[in-house]
Amino acid sequence: MGRRRKGLKIDGVVLLDKPVGLSSNAALQKVRRALNAHKAGHTGTLDPLASGLLPLCFGDATKFSADLLHAEKEYETTIRFGVKTTTGDAEGEVVSEREPTFDYKTFSEVLENFRGEIEQVPPMYSALKKDGVPLYKLARKGEEIERKPRKVVISTLDVLDFNPPEATLVVRCSKGTYIRVLGEDIGEALGCGAHLKSLRRTAVGDLRNSESVTLADFEAMSEEERLKVLLLPDRLLSTLVRIDLDEAQTERFSHGGKVFVDESGPEEKVRVYGIRPDGERFLMGVGRLESNQELIPERLCAFAAE
């Protein structure tokens, strides 16, 4: 029996436009196989019924995937009012139907209550766990447990289209926001119930779906074309302050040593670039910049010590 190939050492990011019906992990594995990449990961799951931006990380980029878990997300969603389902989306069974009677003025007034910091009760159909068991598995058995409300922030809630009994919204929100719950809560506030008809993620942090590639297009590319699609790992860190080190600092930092720089923090996460003997700048990793101008390594790229 021959040894299994481990794949190639590939470092970079693919911004994938995930299709509806595919899990985030299944999408990742398809792109990973197409690249023949050894190490891969994604930056947080996107529901199978949702489409849109799914940043996929390969090699050293996986070291920074967690940074996007805390980033704001942006979605376009179409809400169907008057019909409530078990799952809060179009996949669930209908549990109630009420005729929507609101006008645009009432709709706009209700939306105002969902902007800013709000509380949400996580849905039973979610990956949250109770005693190690995902809630969605309990929900499928007809079980329901108490869930504590969580605070989330809705920074953008704009109307793209209003065509009762449906409306399409743009939502930009904090980590942990459930758009299905948002749609259901808006429906309850309007007195008719609601569920999500569709959901599409359009941004993660400052990454936009307009920069993405579809799975079909990616799989149809040549090997050379696929590699050109890869973005550099530091694309995940573009919102962080940049610190450039000199040669002596580069040497010390690459071995995990702290250095002193001209900038100061307070305890601010930064992206750190070293310099090679030929003058080329390269990403070393992420550090923490203290108020005393001390820069402490947190996560280094594998090639930082080369």
What keywords describe this structure?
single chain; about 300 residues; alpha+beta; Pseudouridine synthase; Archaeosine Trna-guanine Transglycosylase, Chain: A, domain 4; 10-stranded mixed sheet; 5-stranded mixed sheet; globular; EC 5.4.99.25
Tell me the distance between the termini: 35 Å
Taking the sheet with the most strands, its summary is: 10 strands, mixed
What is the fold named in CATH at topology level of the largest domain? Answer: Pseudouridine synthase
Mean pLDDT across residues: 90
Tally of DSSP helical segments: 8
Number of domains: 3
**From the 3D coordinates, which CATH architecture of the largest domain would you assign?**
2-Layer Sandwich
Please report which band the strand proportion falls in: under 5%, 5-15%, 15-25%, 25-35%, 35-45% or over 45%. 35-45%
What would your notes on this structure say?
- It is globular, with a radius of gyration of 23 Å.
- The strands form 4 sheets. Strands 1, 2, 3, 4, 7, 10, 11, 12, 13 and 14 form a 10-stranded mixed sheet that branches. The protein has a 5-stranded mixed sheet with strand order 15-17-18-19-16, covered by helices on one side. A two-stranded antiparallel ribbon has the order 5-6.
- It is an alpha+beta fold and 306 residues long.
- The chain is built from 8 helices and 19 strands.
- The chain folds into 3 domains: 12-70 and 208-233, Pseudouridine synthase, CATH 3.30.2350; 73-204, Pseudouridine synthase; 240-305, PUA domain (Archaeosine Trna-guanine Transglycosylase, Chain: A, domain 4, Roll).
- The chain has helices at residues 24-35, 65-69, 104-112, 135-140, 179-189, 215-220, 223-229, 247-254, and strands at 12-18, 40-42, 51-58, 73-81, 83-85, 94-97, 116-120, 129-130, 133-134, 150-163, 166-173, 194-204, 207-208, 213-214, 241-244, 259-260, 268-275, 281-289, 294-300.
- 36% of the residues are buried.
- The mean pLDDT is 90.
- A hairpin with an 8-residue loop joins strand 2 (40-42) and strand 3 (51-58).
